[in-house]
Amino acid sequence: MTSFKSRLHLAFLVCCLLALAVPRFFGQQTAAPPKPTANLQLYLLIGDSNMAGRADLPADAGDILDRCYLLNEKNEWEPARNPLNRHSSAGKNLAMQKLGPGYSFAKKMLERDKNISIGLIVNAVSDTKIEEWLGKSELYWAARKRTKAALQNGTLKGVLWHQGENDSKNPDDYLGKLQTLVSNLRADFNDPNLPFIAGQIADGSAINPQIAKLPETTHATAFVNSEGLTTTDGTHFDTRSQIQLGQRYAQQMIQLQTRLSTAAAKPPSDLKFIDPHVHAMSVTPLGLRAVAKWMEERNIERCIVSPLNHKGSRPQTEEERQTMLANFRPYKGKIDRMTIIDPGELETVDQAVKILNREKADGAIAFGEHYGAGLKFDDPKNLMLYEACEKVGLPVMFHIDQNKNMVEPGMERVDRVLKKFPKCKVVAHAYWWRQLANGTCDRQLQEHPNLYADMSGAVVVQVLNRDRKYAREFLIRNQDKILWATDEGWWSFGNKDRQMNQHYTFFEELDLPDEVRHKIYRGNAMKVYGLK
């Protein structure tokens, strides 16, 4: 009997062990962590050691934050818990990562709206200067790359910045560098209204006044002050202060987002656009049909197509040229065209004149987009083209960047060409706008009657958005010289959100007078390109 009971007890124990082992075998021992939704509200947290967090963690700060997710080093989402800077691409010392402002910021944002989920991209690192976050620096590029990955699961709703301790001894133009950072982020994430909030540092008598001026000079920004906050070592905020700092960030973010949502501009509905800068596959059967469809969807009455050196865009043979001309005929008065000659394709001005006269007779109304690849702006090969265009009477629309029609600060090469060919109308584009800040763009438009500028491409919104007060004054002052344009092409016709941010709503937010809007949106294009 005892032996039977022993065997019974043994069987019972085996069954119990099996009951525990089966769930473990099938991976059901613990519930899987919740996966993020596809519409996370994303926030990028960047800066120095106070953003990374050096304060001791309070007892209740080790728990997982409900409805909050953290982007890890594999660009995957995991439930957010402290320390939040654990996955920074630069701050690898986990023992140093403690409590930063992100924790209380996220809690307050989640408390405000019970229906949202938040995704945090925290990429802070200690002992940096602001220059290390500008341009294509390693720190900036890493934060940009991680944020681009995060955008697959949500929308970037704002940026939190805290940095400046290492710039205190050399604070010159800290504000200007901060404006550049804001401008770069907005350009890279295609949002001229991206909220950006900067935090003041603990001992920042030289830096904090510049941080406080950011909202006065840059649209859609705010700052949080460090008044009343205490530190553990004169630099790093303690636990109480980090919690307060995060709450202040949240308060400013909520106010900023509310203000932006109520003041959001809509595309103009009182007029139709003329777009003098579009690219199409004009040689292909459906290339211009795609343009016409895009025009109808974007409230564009008329456009001018500029060929690029891509198969299907610029004809390579006489047969393709005749096909292109036939494709344009049904759209006469709706879709016009430019023509191009590469500088290396001719040896004399007379050759260019002969080609351009034929092109003009067959409907070309301008020359462009002139790239001048590998050449200085006033290279003799380029000068031949400008001379030919002046003789034939075709406006020139040029492109400038780091390896096309190259110039130096001040753009004296552009001045020389404009003076040499005063009867040739010239339309600036691309990196020409990058010298707005140093006053060159304004000066050239005022000095040269034959110079105009189209506002196409992301770079224009980027530079104008840096200081909206100046941008508005600049556009009003040069209202007879500026042409609204998009630089859209066959590769981008379907990207409506990006186009709306760049071209349709930004200029409405500047509250330009109606007369100025009419000139920029359509009147100046009609004048420069002789449209009827």
Describe this structure in words.
The chain has helices at residues 2-25, 49-52, 102-112, 138-150, 174-188, 208-212, 214-217, 239-262, 287-297, 318-328, 349-361, 380-392, 412-420, 440-447, 458-464, 468-477, 496-504, 514-529, and strands spanning 40-47, 68-71, 77-79, 118-124, 154-162, 196-199, 221-224, 273-278, 300-305, 335-339, 364-370, 396-398, 426-428, 451-454, 482-483. Helices cover 39% and strands 14% of the residues. Mean pLDDT is 90; it is low at 13-30. With 532 residues, the chain is of the alpha/beta class. Helix 3 (102-112) crosses helix 8 and helix 11 crosses helix 12 (380-392). It has 18 helices and 15 strands.
SS content category: alpha/beta
Amino- and carboxy-terminal Cα gap: 111 Å
Helix content: 25-40%
Rounded mean pLDDT is 90
Principal-axis shape equals elongated
- Spatial ordering of strands, largest sheet: 8-9-10-11-12-13-14-15
Number of DSSP-assigned strands: 15
Largest sheet: 8 strands, parallel
Amount of beta strand: 5-15%
- The total of helices stands at 18
Low-confidence stretches: 13-30
C-alpha Rg (nearest Å): 29 Å
